Amino acid sequence: AAAVFNGVWGGANLVPSHFSTIQGVHYLISFGIGALIANAIVLLLFFLYKASRSEDMPPCHARVMMLPGFFSGMLWSGGNFCSLYAVSTLGQGIGYSLVQASVIVSGLWGILYYREMVGQPILYWAVACAICGAGVVGLALEGVS
Fold this sequence. Notes:
By secondary structure, the chain is an all-alpha fold. It is 77% helix and 0% strand. α3 runs antiparallel to α4 and α4 runs antiparallel to α6. The longest helix has 29 residues. The protein starts with a helix and ends with a helix.
């Protein structure tokens, strides 16, 4: 059930752009506003949950996390901007597939730099990457024919 939900949700997230005159990167303003509202609601719900159980909020550590949080957020925002630009330029079939293939780069960071996997799990990961790559190539060839 979770895989079906993920497939439908992930496959339908760019459908609104087909019904709007606003395309691609122009969605970033509304996305940012929506993310701000959603995060404020989640924080409020967390606060209410902690208050209902008479528990203290965890420490914020704003001074420690401000710089890493800022840079990671800017990096993610830049990637999001580039992904929207790629999808609007290359089309959803190729552009969105390449954006989703970024999990391969993340996996390589985890394996080569952070040493998160060793041995046989790397083989399973490589097979999953090959399937992902075949899907990207298949979608790219679909657009050509």
